[in-house]
Design a protein that fits this description.
With 72 residues, the chain is mainly α. It has one domain. Helices cover 40% and strands 8% of the residues. The chain has one helix and two strands. Strands 1-2 form a two-stranded antiparallel sheet.
Length: 72
Amino acid sequence: MDIKNEYNEHIVDNEADIELDKPSKSRFLFLLFFFGYFIFAWAGCYNLYQHHYEKNDKITVPDNTLYDPKYK
């Protein structure tokens, strides 16, 4: 598409320019947001998985703090 400006120069549109094709621009921004959010959520879940609580059965609990306390 040729456009003439006030100096009678021919300007040829760049077909790869994302600003010229609005549906392509909105699709690109949507996919960018979607995959960015997906990767952010996946990384957070993976981080929680890596730092999960590990059960330790070697902890000694005083007898007076049990559900049914045992007093001396």
